[in-house]
């Protein structure tokens, strides 16, 4: 609970940031615990609505892994993962599209609209927003394998990667006062459907629309140093060094790579923040200290 005596200070601190971001586009990847806990879901919806009301254009890209798992389990389908990517055969793809583009997407839309916002749900198929191609995953090469032998490809099913973003539908909706809420399902050149990693989609959309910021919500505070202390800000090259020196490890690596990719393609700054903190988006954007890790071009 914020003490009443602190409210004027907080508002004054937020003012220059509100002015700075007015009229700008901010892409927010919404996932993790923030999509499961009811109080956090309502707080997120309020944050997104507030951003729109004060003249900022938020674009939400959401995941839905736990919800997909629940439906697959109820159907007796075992979830399999390859390098962190969900193996997606035809049956699983039907479930992914149904859950992401249907239940999860519409719930987020309804939550934002209940707070006074005007959200519209989309998938990458709408307006050919996300053009995708099949992702190629290569098996780790045997050190005894001859150099001239091509690497073995592991088939991940209908897992895709972004080949093109067509953002016209985002511009149209945002200009008319709507908040786009996007499920990470893409379409191939022959009309096939692809399941795409949410962080990758958010990063590519942020780059394509010249977003001022990319914010990735996770279930951890951000990037930690070798002593497990939060790093509040880090430059592009320094982050690269932290990956090569194995300070950044495991599942944090692809998230940091997505944050850096957005910087490389023109996004002003990227953030990784803990979505389990209530009103995390507002605290990161509108306070001097923030709550997560900010990435910037050095």
Protein model, in words:
With 298 residues, the protein is an alpha/beta fold. It has helices at residues 7-21, 38-53, 65-74, 90-114, 168-175, 198-208, 236-244, 252-264, 280-286, and strands at 25-30, 57-62, 81-82, 85-86, 119-123, 130-134, 137-138, 153-154, 159-165, 179-183, 185-187, 193-196, 213-218, 233-235, 269-274, 293-296. Helices cover 38% and strands 23% of the residues. An eight-stranded mixed beta sheet has the order 5-10-2-1-13-15-16-14, sandwiched between helices. A hairpin with a 5-residue loop joins β11 and β12.
Amount of helix: 25-40%
Order of helices and strands: HEHEHEEHEEEEEHEEEHEEHHEHE
What is the name of the CATH topology? Carbamate kinase
Number of domains: 1
DSSP strand content: 15-25%
How would you concisely characterize the structure shown here?
This protein is an alpha/beta fold and 298 residues long.
Topology:
Layout lengths: L6 H15 L3 E6 L7 H16 L3 E6 L2 H10 L6 E2 L2 E2 L3 H25 L4 E5 L6 E5 L2 E2 L14 E2 L4 E7 L2 H8 L3 E5 L1 E3 L5 E4 L1 H11 L4 E6 L14 E3 H9 L7 H13 L4 E6 L5 H7 L6 E4 L2
Parallel strand pairs: 1-2, 1-13, 2-10, 5-10, 9-12, 13-15, 14-16
Antiparallel strand pairs: 3-4, 6-9, 7-8, 11-12, 15-16
Helix pairs in contact: 2-4, 3-4, 6-8
Question: Which properties best describe this structure?
Answer:
about 300 residues, alpha/beta, Carbamate kinase, four-stranded mixed beta sheet, 16 strands, globular
């Amino acid at each position: 609970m914020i003490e009443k005596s602190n409210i004027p200070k907080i508002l004054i601190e937020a003012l220059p940031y509100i002015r700075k971001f007015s009229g700008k586009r901010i892409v927010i990847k919404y996932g993790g615990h923030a999509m499961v806990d009811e109080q956090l879901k309502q707080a997120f919806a309020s944050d997104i609505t507030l951003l729109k009301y004060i003249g900022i254009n938020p674009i939400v890209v959401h995941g839905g892994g736990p919800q997909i798992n629940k439906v697959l389990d109820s159907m007796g389908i075992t979830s399999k993962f390859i390098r962190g990517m969900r193996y997606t055969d035809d049956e699983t793809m039907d479930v992914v599209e149904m859950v992401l583009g249907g239940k999860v997407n519409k719930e987020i839309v309804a939550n934002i609209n209940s707070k006074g916002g005007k959200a519209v749900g989309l998938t990458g198929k709408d307006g050919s927003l996300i053009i995708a191609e099949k992702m190629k995953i290569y098996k780790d090469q045997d050190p005894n394998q001859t150099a001239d032998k091509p690497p073995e490809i592991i088939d991940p099913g209908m897992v895709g990667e972004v080949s093109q973003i067509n953002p016209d539908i985002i511009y149209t909706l945002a200009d008319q006062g709507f908040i786009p809420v996007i499920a990470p399902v893409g379409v191939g050149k022959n009309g096939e459907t692809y399941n795409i990693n949410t962080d990758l989609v958010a990063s590519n959309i942020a780059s394509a629309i010249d977003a001022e910021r990319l914010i990735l919500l996770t279930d951890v505070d951000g990037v930690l140093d070798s002593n497990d202390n939060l790093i509040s800000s880090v430059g592009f090259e320094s982050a690269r060094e932290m990956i090569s020196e194995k300070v950044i490890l495991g599942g944090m690596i692809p998230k940091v790579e997505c944050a850096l990719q957005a910087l490389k393609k023109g996004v002003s700054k990227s953030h990784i923040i803990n979505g389990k903190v209530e009103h995390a988006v507002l605290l990161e954007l509108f306070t001097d200290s923030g709550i997560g890790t900010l990435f910037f071009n050095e």
